[in-house]
Amino acid sequence: MVSVKDFECEFANQWCPGCGNFGILDGMKKAFAALAIAPENLLVVSGIGQAAKTPHFLRCNFFHSLHGRALPLATGAKIANHELTIVVNTGDGDCYGEGGNHLLHAVRRNVDLTVLVHNNRVYGLTKGQASPTSDFGMKTRVQPTGVIAEPVNPMALLLSLGAGFVARAFSGDADHLSRMIQAGLQHPGIAVIDILQPCVSFNNVNTFKWYKERVEYLEDTRHDPTDRDAALKLAFAGEDKIPIGIYFRKEKPHFTQQIPALADGPLILAEKRR
Length: 274
Hints:
Blueprint: H1 21-34, E1 42-46, E2 61-64, H2 70-80, E3 85-91, H3 92-98, H4 100-109, E4 114-119, E5 122-123, E6 129-130, H5 154-161, E7 165-170, H6 174-186, E8 191-196, H7 208-212, E9 215-217, H8 228-235, E10 242-249, H9 270-273
Parallel strand pairs: 1-2, 1-3, 3-4, 4-8, 7-8, 9-10
Antiparallel strand pairs: 5-6, 7-10
């Protein structure tokens, strides 16, 4: 039987006290344990940033890659051993900025990965400059007069790219987040979960209080997650109320499923089958 304790490691955590990443880490452990995913069957891949430190604090296989490059590395790992459960931990800058082109093609290929985007609307590791999701006009140490570019809308972007599973969660509710991660892990194909995560050091606008006053659960509404048009309306609804939950879900053939060479088993075992 797999438990949360199976994923705990001895390394001291280096995040700021109160960081939203703690809730995400908690939600991940609960999800892995709930689905009985053994640590040896799990690979966590990350890029660069505070979010990318997540696998350091988990007992499992992991690969800490370069800035924005987690998705192509995870794709290669999935091709080598498609029986592994592979989770990508990435930040809003790492995924929607440096890794934006890789996100586009990972979605297009429908690689069977669960992508957790820690969206804190700043570059936390490099001391708080604006990220692709920072609000227009937001003032930072690097943009003292305010951001002059419109923010990326990750939900609208993912839906327009044709992602088969698009969800949003809040790090302040680890139980709901865990359920979203479980749903993403069980989805065949790419599953992207945009996680609203306050940065207690460098973002004084999008705080825990700010989110708690705005998030609303899609489970409490009549939203149909098979309706892509309805999901797009949610994505463009503004931020007076921020829906969290599964925006859209549709199963379709995924990448490794369509590679004939993998039909007989993982590529890493091909030599043994000869």
